[in-house]
Records
---
Amino acid sequence: MKYAIFCYHAENAVCSWSKEQDDAVMAKLKTVQEARAKAGKLGPVARLMPTTAATTVRKDGEPVMVLDGPFAETKEQLLGFYLIDADSLEDALEFARALSEANPGGAHEVRPVGFFVDWREAQ
Amino acid sequence: MTDLAWLDAAISGARPQAMAALLRYFRDLDRAEEAFQEASLKALKAWPQNGPPRDPTAWLIMVGRNVAIDAIRREKKSEALPEDDAAFSDLDDAESALVDRLDDAHYRDDILRLLFTCCHPDLPSTQQIALALRVVSGLTVGEIANAFLVSEAAMEQRITRAKRRIAEAGIAFETPGPVERSERLGTVAAMIYLLFNEGYSASGGEVQVRKPLCEEAIRLARLLLRLFPAEPEILGFTALLLLQHARSEARLDADGAIVLLEDQDRGLWNRAMIAEGEALIEKAMRHRRPGAYQLQAAIAALHCTAPSYEETDWVQIDFLYAGLEQAQPSPVVTLNRAVAISKVQGPEAALATIEPLAPKLSGYFHFFGLKGALLAQLGRVADAREAYDRAIALAHTAQEAAHIRLHLDRLAQDAGRGKTWRSKVP
């Protein structure tokens, strides 16, 4: 079975960490990741850029809407995710729009990835 | 690292929003500050024991509010409490109720008001920044005094004076309309930019104490952007700060002297910050509503992503500067554009661009620095030397002067070599 693990935290607190604090967290997490990667049971690890870098593609009807900012509704649940390579934000949004059009409704938040390691390749 | 450091980060992260809400309740900066201060002290006691609350901001607002109400009650012993205050005495129940009421639209105006209050037009810019650092960011008076290189007593006085002025002028508590909101946003961004530049313009021994000012400015810009995620100029503004700050490690050498962009070690640039700045400016440009911050950020992004100074996309930079000249006409913008023009069209065209600026920039170091460089490229050695001499006379720091002297030395060497070379040509 594959599992996806999502990380949640108060962004205003994380943005208030000093560089030393941030580095310390990342170093501790890396130790945990390495142990699992050695067993060949860890895939990609990504740290997303802040929500201010997010754009949301939403389908409430036609046409699909593109809005600045993160996904903000609480009445919908996280059901899946994609990790893509894109030449530009426009390219990424184009794909998200196509996904939205293929869906009867819902939203796709497009967020640039800041930190990324693919442990399968790294090993 | 101590647990205390993490608690501090959680408290300072919550501070702007909590202070903003407390200011709305009590309409008094000092009262709001005391309330927040008390709540923070209680948090430092309670959180390590009971674990931090799910929503630290709501907790701090709640406790701060209760503490301040108690204080007011003590001050006016004879007066009865208003009815609805009783509801706030039970913290646990009230927390969730309060969170529901903290809807985004509401606290957006609260925070904007808090920041805008610090930007009162009667206050000189240094007081605006000092007040924002004290009230919004929660830096101690000692820390602010340190960053501004003044005594703590002098800074204390400056902040007290600023607060008195604001209290006299009165704080605007009505909910702003769209036009007002956009004006406030512009004023607040300008104040944050001043704060950033206080840190950015530091050199030598000042850097260590002043760099946190840049980081604080970025934190406030991000806060503003979270409140107004679809404002292209705020996207551009935040991008601009990130892209400028990304180069800070390479801007000064070991002696604290300024290293020019062309000589900087690009390996020292912060790639994560550059990537975030790029992502934000890309978002901004989708709106097709260019403004001065977006244009400056786009220029900075081109510099940050160029593999080397020589391989910079000068054509695009020239184009963006042309836009900036329209959006925010200033001789300094034209002077900067001239650098791009010199790369695209050559030194002659650049010289023609800056010559009309002479009356306005006759006291500006960088004008004569660039003029000297362009004249040197054209082989007009005597004229170049004259311009460089003027630059040295106008230099603000020893490093600026030293940099120009380097050019003068190079000029002398080249002139020497040029002579022998020319003598061989018929």
---
Amino acid sequence: MLKNYFKIALAVLKRRKFFTFISLFGISFTLTILMVTTALIDKVLSPAYPDYRRDRSLYISKASLLNTKEGWYNGSSVSFRFLNDYVAKMKTPEKVGIFTFSSSANAYVNNKKLVIEYKYTNAPFWEIAEFDFLEGKPYNEQQVQQAARVAVITDRTATKYFGRAEGVTGKYIELDNVNYRVSGVVKGIPRSNRNFYGEIYLPYSVSKNFNGMAGTTGVRDLSVQDRFIGKYGAVLLARSEADVPAMRAEYAQLLKKVFKPQTEYDKLYIHAESIVEGLARNIFGNNEETGIVRMFTFAALLVFLFLLLPTINLVNINITRIMERSSEIGVRKAFGASSRTLVYQFLIENIILTLLGGLIGLVLSSIAIYMFNQADILPDLNLALNLKVLVFGLLLCLVFGFLSGVYPAWRMSRMNVVYALKAK
Amino acid sequence: MIQLQNIEKVYRTDTVETLAVNGINLNVAKGEFLSIMGPSGCGKSTLLNIMGLLDEPSSGSVSIDGQDTSRFKDRQLAHFRNEKLGFIFQSYHLINDLQVLDNVELPLLYRNASSTERRRLSEEALAKVGLSNRMKHFPSQLSGGQRQRVAIARAIVGRPQIILADEPTGNLDSAMGNEIMDILMSLNEKEGTTIVMVTHDEHMAGKTHRLVRLFDGSQVQ
């Protein structure tokens, strides 16, 4: 029975090549876009090298000071003082990593200029981020306190600067006329991971305008901007996932304690939040709410609309095909097919068609992802078709096949035999 | 074998009511070869469709093999048609996307038959109509006479007790028509299959046991 359905499904597909092409193109193209997009989102959002513990981490990247009466605000990254003097001293986090977002500096190799992106970090940064050290080791707390001129570089930087990725530990790299001793080489990460990306990592204490800021106690004497706004961000690692709410609560308390509304600015926002919340707030939210509900609603709506197009297209094509096949339907009924059997046959045919489209979509996705990786559009960002995405895709195909087949099949099965046989 | 009692069939549109079949009473005996004749539009095909349970009468009852079919539901009807009836149509109604063998096999798909059993029976049926060498062809590769023989093979593959043929020779020249007629007559004689055939052709009708003439939906002979 199934074999017979399969034969007729293939025959019908072959008969109307243009319709088949349009159906398959619609299904496979939709699926390809969906799968590449989900692979990309999956890569950006799910724990990935070197940030494996996202489920128990909160991230701080932005500070905003507002004057709501006059409607102006001052916002940027966060000050080192706030992060180091307050956040790093919180009780619930196991560790707090502090870092700048990368900026660029110049190096020269054989009189050729190299632009290298550097990132300042504290020592716990290396304990939170689980970098693969190809050789050497990170700088430690003592080296940071002593403002030692040491650096961790990526394999890419090593190759660019030294011409090789190995055996460079202990050598010196000159950046904006300052020499740093390489203490270790790590495998590089994609730029899309802003919190951890850099081409060279340096202790924050060697930064030019640092000047013994660490451990400053006279915070209150500084202007309110200088107290909160700066160039840094932080990652707070809780001891366990269950500790995250407590960590949020302690952080909220801390914010209340350090900032009191004043004439110049009456509101301060520095959010400590998960990657997804951060993303949602950036696109859909504001300082008061994360916009996470809006983001998911929007995403679901988008996927739904995106799927609706090929589904409607398929329903249409299927109805046309039924009219063409009314003689076959009449014959099958005359020779003993019940309406239910016919619905079943037609659904199976449709699912075969969509699965075929899914298969093509899968091949197209693999090619697209391969090309994306080959083209090195985002260095070190290697997309992969993961199992989740695959299962999701197949499931979508089945839903597609089912939805776009049910209505036409139902109409077909209700066709009167005599009428079906006459229509030619 | 087939009992029609007071069969009426009315087609209604918004404005017109057409009486296609009017008060037909007809008994077809087991093993009989009956032909139905009449001018176009006299209700021959409608009557045949009612006998074949493809169409419902507006009133009256159809019994086949002693069973009143008026209360049958969709699945029972399908099952009954599959077991007892075989159809032959003027325009063959083969499925062009399927090979000859798959076309013949069709009625057996709706029974519990294994694929080897289905294949064996289909090959047998094709042998009976002399088309053993065309099993892997598609309908479009065959002549009209050959297509009708495939249709006959399909009608007999499930060994139904009754075959209903709606102008089986209508689209064929007389030589081919005679060939088809010979096959039907031998089925009737050798296997005892009851056959009801609608035809326009006096010569063909003359070869059957009994002739029924219709005019404007009523039986006149």
---
Amino acid sequence: MSQLHVSAAPHIHSGNTTSKVMRDVIIALLPAAIASVVLFGMKSLILIAACMISCVACEWIFNKAAGKKCTCGDLSAAVTGLLLALNLSTNVPVWQCVVGSAFAIIIVKCMFGGIGRNIVNPAIAARVFMLVAFSEVAGGAACVLTDATTSATPLETLAPGAEGLPTLMEMFLGMHGGTIGETCAAALLIGFVYLLVRKVIRCHVPVVFVGTVFVCALVYSGFDVVYAVQQVLAGGLLLGAIFMATDYVTAPVNLRGRIVFAVGCGLITFVIREFCAYPEGVSFSILFMNLLTPLIEEWTDKEPLGGI
Amino acid sequence: MLFKKNISSLHVPHNKNTASCAPVQISAPKEVVLPMNMQSGHDAEPVVSVGDHVYVGQLVAREEGRNSSPIHASVSGIVKEIAPIKLAGGKTVMAITIENDGKMEADPEMKAPTVTNLDEFLDAVRASGVVGLGGAAFPVWAKLDAVRRNEIETILVNGAECEPYITSDHRMMVDYSDLVAKGVKLMQEHMNVPKIVIAIENNKQDAIDKLGEIFKNDPGVEIYPLETVYPQGAKQVLLYNVTGKVVKGGQRMAALGVLIINVSSVAKLAQYIETGMPLVDRIVTVDGTAVKEPKNLLVPIGTPVSHLLSEVEMKSEPGKILIGGPMLGHAITELDDPVIKATNAILAFEEKDSVELEPTACIRCGRCMANCPVGLNIVAVGRAMNIQDEDARAERLTQLGLKQCIECACCSYVCPAQRPVLSKNLEAKRFLRAYNAAKKEEGGK
């Protein structure tokens, strides 16, 4: 008989792998990616391709240079690229995409130790970096489907009872200005359902995050439901809540911690949107809560069954 | 309980391919090897010498020390050797090898013990050599003995058998339901326990029906169908799911008024009290992806694994052979290793199912924690193991409640990074045990 294998228990495995998880995230983002091409034209496709290719390339180059095993196959760099692209507007030139991707992968992810070790979400950090470094990211671009000339996101004019906003249906379908992936709520929700069905994420973080913003808006506006719904649909809230606040690496690992994290994200988002100079606060809120993650985990630690 | 929290569990593929295979008597092995450490406590002490003739069921090693258990000859023949052998895992242990004369002659002087009261009952259980046959191998008498010191309200008879492939307990409940029933009645009669619950996963409907029929008029016995999830049969999980009780750190289950005993153990102790034949054989499931025609075999204890494998038709050359189930069993390299009292399955896996998975970086997805039956903060345990200072590391591990880990392997099973999470937890537990032992010794000086 040939040599028998010996290994520690268990001897069977669920068959789930990191690349399968990441592949599911990419699939979940496809509706939003397709919607971005429909809503903002072929320029979206160029952005997506530029970001995804440069993210994967950067990871490959870094791994080679650092003499590490290539981790491109786990698809996490591709996810980062796709998320980053969906967070940009069509005004952004390709070279900026490359710079942003390099920042996301090399500075934010690989320098901290690669997959699983980064402190903040690479796509969000890169978006904020680009927001500060290049003026083209902010404000968004005009949707090609409507004849509106304004390229501004509805958030800039959004206030209780404000006029000149797209209708709720237009907002739900994404026919308004903004970054290419954030506007189409319908597509994002399809992706959300897919992630839930595939058990990639649980519903708590997105629901609590969006719910917190909704309740804050409701209370702030004196129970103006339309305004609260507009707060949810305008800007990057759904994209951030479904795809970026649920990032495993940079959010608390326990459920209680994740809920605290989501409440924090919601509160900060609303405060920035309403009271600060920036019209959008989703990226900043997630970035900030990413930094608090180790503390939140400590606060929300609970005893196992049977005590300690 | 008003707000009964659900215990996390997994839907692992059952692969109970042998669920309808009644146990078949295995052909006589040439020799049997009886290791002295077949029970979880102290090693037994040989009472025979090389060259002695022994009958089936004759005592060959007596109980020695704490939580030990006697060992009986499983075949008739001549004691060939009493020498240390090396078992899977590298442990060396004294073992008695008996050359089988093929007659399977029972001791002519064997007679059923007289059991009329609790003392006689416990003595009989002690003499029967029955240990936890589900894998724990804790001597049953030592467990039942708790009835003298605690108010036991419930005995949980564990027929969950949640590990994939294994149907040893299942077939015991179906094919030997009379023995199971007899054992339950004996415990009821002598231990004065108001309630006996036989808990069975609902993928064994035939066992539920059969035992349900036997006990339908007995208010003291309840058949409790369990959801089929892993690790339903783990004692902490079973206790919680049936009674809602939780064993707190440092507590014994008996203090809660509950005892959990494996269903095959119940049947075997009944067999001894009925006939005087102690634990000398057991049902072993032989299955796995490399096995073409899986079987349940009735095997004399001490039979080499190779003999079991020769009784089934193989599909291909196995790449890995396990003693026990695929979640908790251990891989062996030597096919001469014997079936011991707690061996409920021998599984042979094809080469492609045997290759160890390549671990990648932890992505902090939290699946290990979300699927942990006791809700241990596994990610924090991993992080704590990186603490250089031993005192700080031990303090953190204690604070995390590491000792509550039931070692069910759900964490490793679900990990998408295919990391050996359970092995890491076990390493942490070993460290903590050694650390505490060293501290205790230091304090004692």
---
Amino acid sequence: MQELLLGNEAVARGAWEAGCTVTAAYPGTPSTEITESIANYDEIYAEWSPNEKVALEVGVGASIGGARTLVCMKHVGLNVAADPLFTAAYTGVNGGLVIVAADDPGMHSSQNEQDSRYYARAAHVPCLEPSTSQEAKDYVKLAFEISEKYDTPVILRMTTRVSHSRGLVELGERENVPLKDYEKDFNKYVMMPGMAKARHRVVEARENQLAEDCNASPVNQVFKKDRKIGVITAGLPFQYTLQALPEASVLKIGMVYPLPMETIQAFAKTVDRLIVIEELEPLMEKDIKAAGIPCEGKDLFTIQGEYSTNMIKKAVLGISEDGIAPAADLPVRPPIMCPGCPHRGAYYIMKKMKLTVTGDIGCYTLGALPPLASMDTCVCMGASIGMAHGMEKARGKEFAGRTVAIIGDSTFMHSGLTGLANVVYNSGNATVIIVDNRTTGMTGHQNNPTNGRNLKGEPAYEIDLTAVCRALGVQFIQTIDPFDLKGFQAGLKEALAFDGPSVIISKRECALLDKSKWNKPYGVDRDVCIGCKTCIKLGCPALVNDGEKVRIDTALCVGCGLCASVCPTGAIKAGE
Amino acid sequence: MEPISILIVGVGGQGTLLSSRILGQYASHMGYDVKVSEVHGMAQRGGSVVTYVRMGESVASPLIEAGGADYMIAFEKLEALRYVQLMKKSGSIIVNTQRIDPMPVISGTAKYPDGIIEKLSALVETHEVDAAKAAEDVGSIKVVNTIMIGKLAKTMGGDKTIWMEAVKACVPPKTVSLNEAAFNRGYEV
């Protein structure tokens, strides 16, 4: 039976069919739907961990405990999980351990374009990369087999287009994989120098063995056609190559690390022109060149963004496709905070107070864009707090009095706690706004440790942010509704003036969580509106600026009333 | 056969994912290979979103590139114009008359283009649909998606009962008759 599955759903299906019983993850586009989909399988224990490092540690524990285990994250999540990854490569596994890292070429929803394959090389673990939903499912199963056969964690590298494309997948049955016995093995699982030295030799031998064995693996496939052009490619660029160069011979690499160098040598000899087509970094190309095999690669292609059929045609054959000319000078449509977004209140006040704002990763990152345009920095998960502290140490306490860090509830639990501990410990004065919207918003509303629900939606212990901040030593903590603009401004002013670290918990539920709470759309009394455009500064997409005055698009307005509360003439009124 | 390539464009939050699910289901009913490339994540927060649907005997790339689209369903006018370059000159566009101002227009730093329908029509066959009104006529503003699918089905051709089966398979069971009415309404407008 076939089903039309997202690449991410196919990964989940593959894990289920492979007999996986434990999954841990932190949400992150484009990886999120893997774990959401896993949550539908009753045979698999699955959780949102607070961050990717914890998720992988849970995964390593489950694997050593004997279970086939899947751990999922986006590419930058693997940076967070890198610490356990590098040493889990030494301990090896018991039950199979597969780590999914979803890269984002083109940065649809990310802050950088890093290439996870380098982690496989750096940690000396194998890496598989599928090009379709069907392969995503098949490769997960293969990854579990490789993991157990070679006693190693295996990385499955996805990219946005594979994760978020649907394709037909042949469904299979679940394999019954019994839990493996757990036995104490001090030399394998306790990585102190004496034991780790011995394990490092095991890692090297394993990698060499894999590099040899993958030459015979069906995961790497040769499609023999014309000898004029031979392409070595992997992942989605394989599909683009099929369309762009239907006559070319192709070596499709399914295991992108380590590479099957003998197969590549043999393939190279059968073609006149050898071209490596890989998105992002020239990882395969460099290895192939280092083996003394001449090839083209990034001299034809970019390391930026996503590839496509037309791009390959142009780069390799010099053929351009002409279509309809793009329409000129269209206004851009960047993402924005939704109508009713609680973050809008916090940003309106921060902008009004002309603060320096160190930002973080989440829906509230959108506060960096006009017209709110009041976020100064965005680097990585949890960075806001450390950076606010760093700014203070560089520019002094007075500057700290005009600086705030803004971080979401889920992001704070992910990696804000240690930043806050640092501020307290090192006598900082940072003011931190935790925007607590009761969910992990940007990735599509996942539960987290502070909203009282787990991955499966069951009741869970709700960690109290105020109690956490107090326990960390913060003396000034206030919880304020960000739509109480006056109260929010007063509280923030007090926090900034406070001698010592301070926290404002900006608490209001994401407007998308419960649409039954929406009010009737507001309306503008055009006779009372003076066209001052104060409301426009809120950056709400439900407001319509007709040049002279303002209207409300009733199809978009959710009746939050924030615009009414900033209107100086009372022209904006609740709907009846 | 060359795959049929369909673009679905709109503004994040307009619910375009339902349309792509229905089209995927239609392709399955027809026994086609199919690939659907969706947008999840940041752009869903009010950004410009484009979904690609490709169906045929065998589909390799999930992308639709310049000059490659046979059909476009546009849930918002400006977004139709933004992606018109992906259309084949022989293609057809079904455009909802809804206008949603992007933030640069709201904040007054850019102007919403005039005469979008005329511009589109000059380039490629364009069908204008007031989907919101049609949806209200059949009973719920929530069935805008199905109105647009109905119009696409009429434009593309094919067995109407297969289209209807695809719609029924994707909508909540309680709303089947409402969506049936919406599909028929879209088919007729």
